[in-house]
Specification:
Layout lengths: L1 H23 L3 H7 L4 H51 L6 H34 L2 H5 L8 H12 L15 H20 L1 H10 L6
Helix pairs in contact: 1-3, 1-4, 3-4, 3-6, 3-7
Length: 208
């Protein structure tokens, strides 16, 4: 669903870019003449339809977020806990090739899944804002209240997926997760020195 919404925002941005480019191809005199005839109403109608389409996509994102918010929160929580446990267990020696393969494959799978979900979620947020540079470069002669409303809406209500409103999925979330994992991993190491010594002395096999 996130990919579909991102694709629709991309189509909307391409439509805006094509329209503005077609206007910029005209000379300044042609733009002024355009704004003084019947075509001005068509221009305002175009931007009104664009704004309504953007608003509809934002509502779809909000509805999807309401349905998937709890699942996103649970998924990120389980992934972070699994990564923390796997990193903590990795500090001991591993017996056999099978255990080593299992550790790296399971750990790599969870990390890749978390990163991919964050990238796609951030892609939605970035694409929804991607039309802003084009809108800010609209010629003054065709600037109208509908464009101003659209710019304000993109600034104030940019759609994004959240974990039940505890966090928003953006590209910067990956760095935040990495910093959180490092912090808690250091805390686990400090408070579990006895367990680490037991692992190193007995070479116990623990699978998670």
């Amino acid at each position: 669903m996130c990919i579909i919404l991102t694709f629709r925002f991309e189509q909307l941005k391409d439509k805006i870019v094509c329209y503005v480019k077609s206007i910029n191809l005209c000379g300044r005199r042609d733009i002024v003449n355009l704004c003084h005839n019947q075509t001005e109403k068509i221009d305002v109608l175009f931007w009104k339809n664009i704004r309504e389409d953007y608003n509809g996509l934002c509502q779809m994102c909000s509805t999807t977020n309401d349905l998937l918010g709890d699942m996103i929160l649970l998924s990120y929580t389980c992934n972070i806990i699994f990564i923390l446990v796997q990193l903590f267990v990795s500090l001991r020696d591993r017996d056999g090739t099978v255990e080593t393969i299992y550790f790296f494959s399971s750990f790599g799978f969870v990390v890749a899944r978390t990163v991919i979900v964050s990238i796609y979620g951030g892609w939605l947020n970035e694409t929804a804002k991607s039309a802003l540079p084009t809108l800010n470069a609209v010629p003054t002669e065709i600037y109208n209240p509908e464009i101003a409303c659209l710019i304000n809406q993109i600034h104030t209500s940019s759609p994004t997926m959240t974990g039940h409103d505890f966090f928003s999925i953006t590209k910067g979330l990956i760095l935040s997760i990495a910093a959180t994992i490092i912090t808690y991993e250091l805390a686990l190491i400090q408070f579990n020195q006895v367990a680490l010594k037991k692992f190193s002395s007995n070479n116990d096999t623990v699978c998670y």
